[in-house]
Write a sequence for this structure.
């Protein structure tokens, strides 16, 4: 049995509103360039989460793990359409690569650490992949632009509580109680405590 305990530093699971791009510009201090819609959506959620933790940067020791169902699907469709007419334009092709989010996060947060993207069509399996091998502090996310845009993030710090806590099950990694301050992973099961 594997047990890991984390302090929840911040959570971002705000609905994607019409002004999320303006919020991203305010968080960055400038308009992002040459990023796909998916990367911008992920960047908005990550920066919002980090700001809620009261931080402006991210230590290199923090792992960033992102799960999604479709990745940069809109950019991929655009590249395929351009391929039918010849070769895709270089920036369109570049935007099909979801890993670009790590370059953007590195620039915005001064982070140069371990990043991973997993694509799953089953949220339970995706969350299990995010938690697999996790032993240090981490910024975890589920980002998708379709069918419904979302950019859910949780920032966890490896830490043991200094008191006994009452643990209760969490519906999922991204559906913790808003009052929860702690997260415990027992194998693939997620528990939370206030």
């Amino acid at each position: 049995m594997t047990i890991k305990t984390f302090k929840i530093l911040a959570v971002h699971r705000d609905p994607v509103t019409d002004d999320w791009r303006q919020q991203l510009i305010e968080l960055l201090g400038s308009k992002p360039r040459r990023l796909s819609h998916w990367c911008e959506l992920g960047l908005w959620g990550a920066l919002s989460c980090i700001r809620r933790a009261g931080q402006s940067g991210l230590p290199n020791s923090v792992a960033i793990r992102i799960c999604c169902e479709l990745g940069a699907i809109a950019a991929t469709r655009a590249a395929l359409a351009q391929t039918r007419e010849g070769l895709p334009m270089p920036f369109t092709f570049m935007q099909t690569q979801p890993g670009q989010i790590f370059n953007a996060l590195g620039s915005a947060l001064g982070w140069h650490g371990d990043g991973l993207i997993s694509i799953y069509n089953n949220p339970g399996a995706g969350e299990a992949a995010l938690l697999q091998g996790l032993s240090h502090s981490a910024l975890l996310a589920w980002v998708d632009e379709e069918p419904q845009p979302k950019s859910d993030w949780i920032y966890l710090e490896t830490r043991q509580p200094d008191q006994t806590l009452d643990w209760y099950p969490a519906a999922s990694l991204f559906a913790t109680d808003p009052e929860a301050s702690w997260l415990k992973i027992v194998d693939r099961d997620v528990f939370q405590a206030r």
Notes: The chain has a mean pLDDT of 88. The CA atoms of residues 24 and 44 lie 5 Å apart. Helices lie at 20-28, 37-52, 73-84, 90-95, 100-109, 123-131.
